[in-house]
Write a structure and sequence with these properties.
It is a single chain. By secondary structure, the chain is of the alpha/beta class. It has three domains: 13-325, Rossmann fold (3-Layer(aba) Sandwich), CATH 3.40.50; 348-422, Luciferase, domain 3, CATH 2.30.38.10; 424-519, 2-Layer Sandwich (GMP Synthetase, Chain A, domain 3). It has 17 helices and 26 strands. The strands form five sheets. It has a 13-stranded mixed beta sheet with strand order 2-1-10-9-11-12-13-14-15-21-20-17-16, sandwiched between helices. Strands 6-5-3-4-7-8 form a six-stranded mixed beta sheet, sandwiched between helices. Helix 1 runs antiparallel to helix 2 (43-59) and helix 1 runs parallel beside helix 9 (225-232).
């Protein structure tokens, strides 16, 4: 091998912000906040404050490799932590406030964090968590206390240079079964992912775009949008936790948003608001929707009524999270508009540079890309997990990571997910474990078998339905089951309905969830 003669310059997250501040310093950042007026500044201001935050972290004793946790929404202060914490070589763990108290505490303790930043409207949650977090040395409110830390610094700080393979973010899976797993992103993976996400085959950004991430910043770094926006010099609009239809409509129209992304539930509420209010979409041109399958009627309404293109996306915490995006190709368009539209609306998306895909059968043999043969979906690439934190196997020796999904890939490279290897439920973009819910319900006196399946819901896309088969001669009521579950599962995991019926079993004695899903497919279609 002949060594190259190019500069060895590490790919670091701080270089993204430094570029945005220098090349697009006056491009605006707009942020809603909890109980405060809207905050407005620019990329240059973001870098100044991020440097001051880095100084404050160092003064608090945070060193390279240390972990810092956040319980925070999509705001400019959270954005500053996205750059300040990894900028000094530390690791930002973005905790998910929608998990149960025990799961949140588990992730913070498992991360080994020493500082917790949190939002004002999460103060009650943090008070409950404090006894469970003995290693946290500082609890810092993302309001006046945070501002005081920054005000004490001069911002005269040079970002250190270090190995691009250093850890930067620690994101946890939602704990569909068992404890959540930690995925430790590197500076290299974040930068490469951020560059690739802006390509024409993906989000197709330019400096003229105005981006509003409605995917939470604690969900795999808001799909990488805070970094891709900075790389491309886009205006950034941050909605805090205000994801209702009216709030989003006002921001989209008022700030000239051209691109946004989030789970289908958010856009269901947005469309409902547009319909009832008569409000328009302003400059909005593109939406990327992921987390669960995009309802076809939603995509068609956006396109035909409002002129907005909907792009499906598939990814995971383990893929940083970009996997595939449903953008067209000349080869696909050559098949005709109807064929291309059908493909784009019914597939999760096509392979992107940086991600290899394959589907395999049970014997591990790669299957053809014919759109017909379904198999286990595996991925690998420079932003795919290799091992879970701190050191647990994730990929095989050739780098292939088994996603747990079943799907097909067609000749154009478009992925279609056909099933889930595990019967988890995706409600409003959040995972619910059917197994954990079943185990909790099975402990209720009188219950013989408890089965949980996800069924269609008009607002949340999918919600859990609990089917109970009682012991012979015993009487169990829905009220008794709910009372039993209330102390054992987080509130939003509670089943939307409880049905008492014989639970079908397969020939091997397992619960036949396919039969249950077919039987109760429309049970919650018009919930009371």
């Amino acid at each position: 091998m002949l060594p190259a003669l190019m500069q060895d310059f590490p790919l670091q997250i701080s270089s993204i912000l430094a570029h945005a501040a220098r090349a697009h310093g006056e491009r605006e950042i707009v942020s809603k906040l909890v109980g405060e007026p809207v905050w407005r500044y620019d990329w240059a201001g973001c870098e100044r404050r991020s440097r001051a935050a880095a100084q404050a972290l160092l003064k608090l004793g945070i060193a390279s490799g240390d972990r810092v946790s956040s319980l925070a929404w999509n705001t400019h202060r959270h954005l500053e932590l996205f750059y300040a914490v990894p900028g000094i070589g530390a690791v930002l763990h973005t905790a998910n406030p929608r998990l149960s108290d025990d799961q949140i505490a588990f992730t913070i303790n498992h991360a080994g964090s020493r500082i917790l930043f949190f939002e004002p409207n999460l103060s009650d949650l943090v008070e409950r968590l404090k006894p469970l977090l003995p290693a946290i040395e500082h609890f810092i409110l993302l309001a006046a206390p945070y501002e005081a830390l920054l005000a004490a610094e001069d911002g005269d700080f040079a970002w250190p240079r270090f190995d691009e393979q250093a850890a930067a973010f620690l994101c946890y899976t939602s704990g569909t079964t068992g404890d959540p797993k930690g995925v430790l992103y590197s500076h290299r993976s974040i930068v490469l992912h951020g560059m690739a996400a802006g390509l024409s085959s993906a989000f197709g950004f330019s400096a003229f775009d105005v981006i509003m991430p409605c995917s939470s910043m604690y969900h795999a770094t808001a799909w990488g949008l805070p970094f891709t926006a900075a790389i491309n010099g886009c205006k950034l609009v941050l909605p805090c936790d205000k994801m209702d239809g009216a709030s989003l409509a006002d921001l989209i129209a008022g700030e000239g948003v051209t691109f946004s992304g989030g789970v289908p539930t958010i856009w269901t509420m947005y469309l409902a608001h547009l319909e009832t209010s008569g409000q328009g979409v302003g400059a909005l041109k593109r939406l990327v929707i992921g987390g669960s399958a995009v309802p076809r009627a939603m995509a068609e309404t956006f396109r035909e009524t409002y002129g907005v293109t909907v792009l499906q996306i598939w990814g995971m915490t383990e893929t940083n999270p970009l996997g595939v995006i449903s953008t067209p190709t000349p080869l696909l368009m050559a098949e005709g508009d109807d064929y291309a539209t059908e493909t784009i609306l019914t597939r999760q998306g096509r392979m992107q540079f940086g991600i290899e895909l394959r589907i395999i059968d049970d014997a591990g043999t790669a299957l053809a890309w014919d759109g017909e043969q379904a198999g286990k979906l595996q991925v690998r690439g420079p932003w795919v997990v290799d091992r879970y934190y701190p050191d647990l196997p994730a990929a095989d020796r050739d780098g292939w990571f088994d996603t747990g999904d079943i799907g097909t890939i067609d000749r154009f490279g478009f992925l279609r997910l056909t099933d889930r290897a595990k019967d988890v439920i995706k409600s409003g973009g959040e995972w619910i474990s059917s197994i954990d819910l079943e185990n909790a319900a099975a402990g209720c006196p009188g219950v013989r078998i408890a089965a949980v399946v996800g069924v269609y819901h008009p607002k949340w896309e999918e919600r859990p339905l609990l089917v109970i088969e009682a012991h012979a001669g015993e009487s169990v009521t829905a009220e008794q089951v709910r009372a039993h579950l209330e102390t054992r599962v987080v509130r939003w995991w509670m089943p939307d309905d409880i049905v008492f019926a014989a639970v079908p079993l397969t020939a091997t004695g397992k619960i036949d969830k396919k039969v249950l899903r077919d039987t109760y497919r429309d049970h919650l279609a018009a919930p009371g």
